[in-house]
Every structure is written in C-alpha cells, then in structure tokens.
Design a protein that fits this description.
mainly alpha; 47% helix; 2 strands
Length: 112
C-alpha cells in the first residue's frame, strides 16, 4: 500500500462473491483458468467456500482500519456493487488517470 496512490477495495456481498466462485468452478470444470498457471485446474472445497462466504464478516473490519490509516495520503475507493465497478471501469476507460482526481468516483473511506 505504501507505493500506491489509489487503493480500490472491492467490498462485495457474500452472495455475489460466492455465486461468482461457483460460476467460475462450473465454467472451468476440469480446465485451467486463463489467470492460473498451466496444469492448475479449477477446484474449490467447503473450507474455501466458507472463507469466501465469511470474508466480509471476518476480514472487513481489519481491512478498513488499515485503509483508514492511509486515507490522509492515499485515495481510497470503496466498491460495494458490480454497478459501481462498471462505472469506475467506464470512467477509467474514458478519462484515464484523471478519473482519480475526482472525489465523486465512489465512496472514499473516511470522507463520506
């Protein structure tokens, strides 16, 4: 985080994240995902599913506390929905780095 100017935290609901894990598992069943090393087929287990489901409950507070520590010298953008992510990507595509000069991109931790 020290080297970053902007930090984007995806704080998506457990329903969305768990659905996407299952969807990826079905989509790449028996195959290697493009973002994984060759020979590393897609797999999930109950422990991983529970980690995903409980991530927000178990880890969010610690993450937001660390982000607040950096909020004075970094721009922290909190994305809570897929729609917010799409809007941010569209803004970055259209405006490039200037997207981060505007505070209205999304909620900024500690400022709204």
């Amino acid at each position: 985080m020290e080297a970053a100017d902007v930090i984007i935290f995806f704080d998506l609901s457990p329903l969305i994240t768990t659905y996407r894990v299952i969807k990826r598992r079905l989509q790449y069943h028996g195959k290697t995902r493009p973002d994984l090393n060759e020979g590393c087929p897609e797999s999930i287990d109950w422990q991983f599913m529970m980690y995903c489901w409980n991530f927000r409950r178990d880890k969010r507070h610690g993450i937001t506390e660390k982000l607040k520590q950096h909020s004075k010298d970094k721009q922290i953008i909190l994305i809570r929905t897929p729609k917010e992510a799409k809007l941010l990507l569209r803004d970055i595509t259209n405006s490039g780095c200037r997207s981060f000069e505007r505070a209205d991109v999304s909620e900024i931790i500690g400022q709204k």
